[in-house]
Amino acid sequence: MEQRACQECGQKLNGRKDQKFCSDYCRNAFNNKLNEDSNKYVRRINGILRKNRRILEKLNPNGKVTTDGITLAEEGFNFHYYTNIYTTQKGGQYFFCYEHGYIKLENDQYMLVMKQDYVK
Asked: CA-CA to 60 of 20 to 30 Å: which in 3, 13, 42, 98?
C-alpha cells in the first residue's frame, strides 16, 4: 500500500484515499502560501477601491453633489480604479466605486452620485 503524506507538513495520512492534508490548519496554510502573491495584488487593489469609495461617501453625504477634481485629488482619490462604468443613452460615462459614482463635467468639475436601482 502506498504511503501518503500531508502536502503541507509531510505527516502520514490515514483515512480517505483522496485526502491531501492532515488538518484544516495544514490545508489553509498550504492554500495561503499558494495564493500569497495574487492575494497581495488583490488586497492592494481592494484597498484603493475602498479608499475611493470612502472619499466619495465623505464628499457626497446626501446622494448628489458637484465638486472639483482638485478636492478629490487632495483627498487621495485615484481615478484609475473603479468597479464599473455606466454609460447613459447620450454617451455620458459614470464611473462607480461600488455604489458611489461620479461623472466628469466641464472645467475639472465632477458630479458625485449614488447608484440608482436602474443602473446595472
From this structure: 42
Residue 119 scores a pLDDT above 80:
no
C-alpha 55/C-alpha 40 separation (Å) is 23
Per-residue pLDDT for 38 more than 80?
Answer: no
Half-sphere exposure of 79 (CA within 13 A, CB side): 13
- Contact at 8 Å (CB) between 71 and 33? no
CA distances for 19 relative to 4, 10, 52, 92, angstroms: 9, 13, 43, 54
* CB neighbourhood size of 106 (10 A): 5
Q: Write down the pLDDT at residue 6.
A: 94
Can you give the pTM of this predicted structure? 0.71
Q: How is 82-120 classified by DSSP, letter by letter?
A: -SEEEE-TTS-EEEEETTEEEEE-STTEEEEEE--TT--
Is 85 in contact with 104 (CB distance < 8 Å)? no
Distance of CA 26 to the CA centre of its chain: 27
